[in-house]
Amino acid sequence: MYASREDIGYDFGDDSKVRSKPIKPNPNIDGGWAWMIVLSSFLVHILIMGSQMALGILNMEWLEEFNQSRGLTAWVSSLSMGITLIVGPFIGLFISMCGCRTTAIIGGMLNALGWILSAYASNVHFLFLTFGVTAGIGSGMVYLPAVVMVGQYFQKRRALAQGLSTTGTGFGAFLMTALLKYLCIEFGWRNAMFIQGAISLNLCVCGALMRPLSPKELREKYVVRSDSEENRAKALSHSAETIKSNGALGEEPEKKEEAANEEVFGSVQHTEIGGKSGSGRSMYGLRLFKTVSQLTLTVRKGFALWYSSYFGAASLFTNRVFVAFVIWALFAYSSFVIPFIHLPEIVKQYNLSRQDNVFPLTSIIAIVHIFGKVILGIISDLPCISTWNVFLMANFTLVTCILTLPLMQTYVGLAVVCALIGFSSGYFSLMPVVTEDLVGTKHLANAYGIIICANGISALFGPPFAGWIYDITQKYDFSFYIAGLLYMVGIIFLLIQPCIQKKQPREKSTEEAQV
Question: Which of 171, 133, 165 is CA-nearest to residue 149?
Answer without folding.
Answer: 165
